[in-house]
Amino acid sequence: MANQLAVMDGGGGFWREAGGDSNGEIAGGCMNVRYALLAIFALIAGFSHAESRKLTMCYDKYPPYAMGEFGELATSGIKVKLLQEIGRQLDVLVVVRILPWKRCLSAVKDGLVDGILPLYKTPEREQFMEFSLPVMRQYNCFLYKKSAFRGRVDWADYRALKEHHLGMEIGSVVDKEMEAIFESAHPIDRAADSVTLLKMMDSGRIDLATIDSNVGKYLVGQQGVADTIGVSDVPIGKLSYAAFGFSKAAGAGKWVAEFNKVIEKMRKAGLLEKIEN
């Protein structure tokens, strides 16, 4: 009596019935089953690998570094593009969630995300983050109302500027010595964001404002005020370099070595400066 054997068709991926008692047919059917199972296991392993090569980071809504809406994924930005290029070279899927700054730092600290886009390394942050090599030069500078200054201005001599009204964002600390010099003449005006500082300057309430240099250049162009407001190229205080921060709680420190290799490679090729500009 002929034996009946159900086997997986190796080519079409569907079940068929094989008749006969030939050992060759049975052996061939078993081989088809084995190949099918191996293919399934390989597929599962591939999904697992892809999932392990995913990196979720966060950053504030802070053009031109990161653009997007709070609670959503970033759409563009200098630091976002930098992460995407590193992810491309490492064959890693990278995403950036836009979160308010304090919430982003808290998410990194609690291990809810893998890390944060380039930021300044401080002793406090080193307690819950591991840092990559420096990747981006960042510094604060002055926005200034052009009509309030004539001729050459020595931006390094804060005492020569202290009679002018200075504006800063709420909570920002740029250079304590500089701030003390300005406060000795006038209270520093504080604003919720950089756009408000521009409006305060346009109305004549302040003559100067501290701002991240890249943010200042972006906003002056975006707001169409380049004819009346300038951006200084002279850093306030020390020139600093930002680095990627990886959450210790999320076990993301394992990425530091891989990131550093790509960062060194990109630096030698001039790609870091190209992306920053």
Structural features:
disordered N terminus, 5-stranded mixed β-sheet, alpha/beta, about 280 residues, 12 strands
Q: Could you describe the 3D structure shown?
A:
The protein is an alpha/beta fold. The protein contains nine helices and twelve strands. The strands form three sheets. Strands 4-3-5-12-6 form a five-stranded mixed sheet, sandwiched between helices. A five-stranded mixed sheet has the order 9-8-10-7-11. The longest helix is centred in the first third of the chain and has 30 residues, at 23-52. It is elongated, with a radius of gyration of 28 Å. The relative contact order is 0.15. The model is unreliable at 1-20 and 35-51 (pLDDT under 50).
Order of helices and strands: EEHEHEHEHEEEHEHEHEEHH
Arithmetic mean pLDDT: 83
**Quaternary organization:** single chain
Strand residues, percent: 15-25%
The biggest sheet amounts to:
5 strands, mixed
Number of helices: 9
The unreliable regions are 1-20, 35-51
* Radius of gyration of CA atoms, rounded to a whole number: 28 Å
Percent helix: 25-40%
Beta strands, count = 12
